[in-house]
Amino acid sequence: MRSRDSYAEPFRIKMIEPIRQKDRKSRDLLIDKAHYNVFNLKAEDVYIDLLTDSGTNAMSANQWAGMMLGDESYAGCANFYHLQDAILDIIGYKYVVPTHQGRAAENILMSMFVGEKQTVLGNMHFDTTEGHIRLRKAEPLNLIIDEGIMPDTNHPFKGNINLVKLEKELKKRGPEQMPLLIMTVTSNSNGGQPVSMENMREASALAKKYGRPLIIDCARFAENCYFIKQRDEAYRDKSIREIARELFSYADGCTMSSKKDALVNIGGFLAFKDNEEWYEKAVQIQICYEGFRTYGGLAGRDLEALARGLYEGTEEDYLEDRIGQVSYLGQKLIEAGVPIMKPIGGHGVFVDGKSFLPHIPQAHLPAQALVVELYREAGIRTIELGTCAFGYVDPETGQEVYPTQDLVRLAVPRRAYTDRHMDIVVRAFEKIAARKDRICGLEITYQAEILRHFTARYKLL
Ligand SMILES: *Cc1c(COP(=O)(O)O)cnc(C)c1O
Fold first, then answer.
1. Is 234 in the same domain as 350?
2. How many domains does the chain have?
3. 375: left (phi over 0), alpha (psi -120 to 50) or beta
4. Residues 6+ apart with CB under 8 A from 330
5. What is the pTM of this model?
6. Does 198 lie in the same domain as 70?
7. Could you tell me if the CB of 186 is within 6 A of ligand 1?
8. What pLDDT score does 182 carry?
9. Distance CA 7, CA 85 (A)
10. How far apart are the CA of 219 and the centre of ligand 1, in A?
């Protein structure tokens, strides 16, 4: 990877969107009014928004121009065919089922393949994937390599699946109990960590051997391919598009949230390599939940922006800048002594709340306390992925069950912020670090039964 100071952003800015930092007193009031949950803040009260990289992408002039060419015909719109061509070209799959976003593609996939009491294998399922598996009364099973969940071990492909465990599971149960294998690239849930080409190839061979379809959850496939190019000698001289074609060649289909690597604000799709029967089955479900086969819940203009975004998202200079910016933020935080997960992932930096605020016990939500402090310090919005997001109250014992990690994710929207915004984030961390002994924990005062972190309320202790 070239060093960040040897190049600048491979774009210039044609249109701007003003953002303003509220003063400290207002921020204290606003976060209090939001019950210390940043999901309750109005976006206009946020200065730098690192809540998520999903749908927060800045589109290019080329994509906006494409929006004007939206063909809003109910059936057979031109933009669908553009999208179909782009997917055939970049991914290599023939059958395309557009959906309104990634989870809608998951809904169709799970409806087709998954039934009660079955188990769906994967490296590490994303939370909406898990949700759709559980909705069908089936069980998600994560088989990520051990290094994948060790925050301090430096492994180049922490998204890899454990092949020994995978074969053991496949051997144990027949296809009627284990209908699908899903590989998520990059693995979102452990920090945007990539899957290696070799691991995908071997997972594919096992899936074939035992006769199960392999589906790639490919929301961040371009970032994954960039990591393969950087970290695997054998792919150094290949283009991102060549790497992508090979990666997808090992699977039978994919689900995509285009709100990530396709550089749009909404949209998704399900695609199959060559199985026409699956495609027709998927279309039946698509028509009920999404819309006719050529629009699937999206406007013609959205399909066009998505088709163009797939090309832009797989440009080498774009990816160098994208991954470079996330890495820039991570490096600066390391230099400032902030404990982060290593290696730095593709779409964000994950800070270890427990070791940043060691005086706050996990029961008092150190990562959430840091989320609150970042807003108070500089109007920065981040997300807690720890005790609030993954902990829960055991219905039998009434006791809180704690996840091992308590993290704050700084997700970086694509093409939206400059490195100077990243510098402000680093400075906020430095200021918080200087007074961190005085930061107190929080307590939950209201929580929903599932996905509690979206709507929870907190009070300061
Ligand atoms: C975002 C995401 C999804 C869900 O997609 P939406 O567009 O948010 O519905 C599924 N899988 C992964 C890996 C994701 O990052």
1. no
2. 2
3. alpha
4. 340, 344, 349
5. 0.96
6. yes
7. no
8. 98
9. 33
10. 6
**Active-site entry in 126, 157, 248, 269:** 126
- Residue range 283-315, pLDDT digits in tens: 999 999 999 999 999 999 999 999 999 999 999
* Cis peptide upstream of residue 18 (ω within 30 degrees of 0): no
Count CA atoms within 13 Å of residue 85 on its CB side. 8
258 lines ligand 1 (CB under 6 A): no
Report which of 192, 172, 230 is spatially closest to residue 385, judged by C-alpha positions. Answer: 192
Pairing of strands 119-122, 139-142: parallel
Q: Which tokens sit at 333?
A: 């935080």
Q: What is the band of 153 on the pLDDT scale with cuts at 50, 70, 90?
A: confident
Together in a domain, 334 and 439? yes
Q: Pick the catalytic residue: 260, 332, 354, 421?
A: 260
Same domain for 259 and 173: yes
Q: Which domain holds residue 153?
A: 61-312
Q: How far is CA 403 from CA 28, 391, 407, 447, in A?
A: 29, 6, 10, 17
Q: Is pLDDT above 90 for 327?
A: yes
Mean pLDDT of the chain: 96
CB atoms within 10 A of CB 364: 17
Q: Where does a domain end: 294, 312, 330?
A: 312
pLDDT at 78: 98
